């Protein structure tokens, strides 16, 4: 695996530079003809510039004529204005050469539960990672600081640092810290650092861009929230008329569903394949398939104080589908989004239970959700989501443990309504009826999301 | 094994034969201009159509593959496409069209932008500190962009340099004649007072000497509110304006509401090529803008 990795890196580095070796006569000939072409090009440009000079003089008088009636506000700009072709490099994202684009997302919420969220558990699916219900009552959500900029002409970088409140303390986390190539040939890019795994549809979406206040149950149960890990991501966009993207990732494997950085720190890898397109002007869709293989060494899950430990392998497949509709593709007025994901995983290894006993575990589990969000008129949206999980029986040895699924499949029904004053502010009301735990649970929440600073751009 | 696959892919990529220059524009007017200048030597498509608000576009899969295959990208710039273009560029892995390279052209960098106000904040709405990005409605800007677009075409496809140069000369001639004609016909519009849905028209107003007295949006980019419309009714109800104008992708309701109560004609104007049935190319687009204003004003 490691040699593969170095092979990939080597190939990428080879091609990111400009090999300037003229190897033989034909190469020299080629260079000569290129030089000749460049000379022709320059002569053409000089001729062009002369022509433009003439034209500019004429144009100046034209424009003078056309703008003499305008108000004085433009007069100053007119006199001092010069075309600035370099400005384009910086204009694209509103950042300048040395100062990165900085943004802060403020989030907060209030949640109420009919059943104590501290004792929340899903039988058969002991939760790991960041999974679990949002805190009860008034609470600050993650305050997310984003910093992004191009490093130089070949690399770009991003940092996302959420400040979370844990047990009353503000904790600075590191969610994203990556550098990525911009100029690899052949539709390739390579990212290094900490990043959301590019698997599933929601896994790499920031919380502020979700359509519901929380993640689908299947993300909570199978990925411990969202799968974030340290390592390398290679992405290839096929040179086809339709969208086809392939990605491969090799990461450390420290986070749920991996754990303990197995294989000497090469504990998990993943692949994804994604495609999509338009149907007329009004519809567009995306579909994808991802695979995650995660090694776990004493991975914790379940009760924080008395965790279960899993050692073994997780094989996980994920299928995603998203359909977006807006009349004529103008989603400003009305739009509709349908989204569904299905996940299947097999965990093969051993579980160490709270009583210290270690038992073999080889069980398949499935989960899926579907959701629909509709914007009937600007600023207002309503949405519905249905979640469902199911688990095979791990065996009678697990009777009475958190790994034994209940006889009826865990499920949850959610509805939400949100209002966005602008692209940068959103208030959301959400209610859900949760039948995933032992008791039916009525949950309601009110959430705010506000963004300041750099104007982010969102993926499909 | 995996190494070998990747090496083969890398070797295959440049073999993909491309005859024509592939141009992707963010807005239809630049696609229309590229067609005038590039003729049959280019293959051009627009990421948006005239019925879409270019501020709010999804970074759709189909657009990612188009950016990935483009030789030249032409956009209005000045942050008009900031919500989606950077994402497309990042996902498309195409170094040819990155900002700063010859394959990336932001039209607004080459014209005089109006309403440049670097020190504003978002309490005034989603305004663009680098100036109003809707530069296309002043036909003189089209000449400036035509020049730089031709330069880029020549730079990217030197073999057809003469062809592009000739097309530019030809276009400039026809366009300059057309401007003279439009200015003559639109002379009666000078000084007319306009209420615009969104401030998408300041370059047109600047050119024709129209006077924008208000916008239906109280705050730029935020849909018109009932209270703001009420105050507009109070302020301009008594013949305080001559036209209420909006683009095809903007809701008809607010301008209709105000028009019915004030008698000021509500006019739908094509903000770009394709915005109305009549606006089929750059020339008929400006024809139609002026026709619609003259008709609505009974002039």
Please provide a written account of the structure.
The complex is a heterodimer of chains A (460) and B (299). A 16-stranded antiparallel β-barrel of chain A has the order 1-3-4-6-7-8-9-10-11-12-13-14-15-16-17-18. Chain A is of the alpha+beta class and 460 residues long. Chain A is 18% helix and 45% strand. In chain A, strand 4 and strand 5 (169-172) form a beta hairpin. By secondary structure, chain B is α/β, with parallel strands linked by helices. Chain B has 2 domains: 19-180, Rossmann fold, CATH 3.40.50; 182-297, Nitrogenase molybdenum iron protein domain (Rossmann fold, 3-Layer(aba) Sandwich). Chain B is built from 10 helices and 8 strands. In chain B, the strands form 2 sheets. Chain B has a 4-stranded parallel β-sheet, with helices on both faces. Chain B is globular, with a radius of gyration of 21 Å. Residues 9-18 of chain B have low confidence and may be disordered. Chains A and B meet through helix 1, helix 2, helix 3, helix 4 and strand 8 of A and helix 1, helix 3, helix 4, strand 4 and helix 5 of B.
Quick rundown:
Chain A is α+β, with helices and mostly antiparallel strands.
Listing every helix as H and every strand as E from the N terminus to the C terminus, the arrangement of chain B reads HEHEHEHEHHEHEHEHEH
What's the CATH architecture of chain A?
Beta Barrel
CATH topology of the largest domain in chain B: Rossmann fold
Average pLDDT value of chain A?
84
Q: Note the beta-strand portion of chain B.
A: 5-15%
* Secondary structure: number of strands of chain A: 18
Helix/strand class of chain A:
alpha+beta
The CATH superfamily title of the largest domain in chain B: Nitrogenase molybdenum iron protein domain
Order of SSEs of chain A: HHHHEEEEEEEHEEHEEEEEEEEE
SS field, number of helical segments of chain B = 10
Largest interface: A-B, 88 and 85 residues
**What is the CATH topology assignment of chain A?**
Porin
Structural class given helices, strands, pairing of chain B? Answer: alpha/beta
Question: How many discrete domains of chain A?
Answer: 1
Shape of chain B: globular
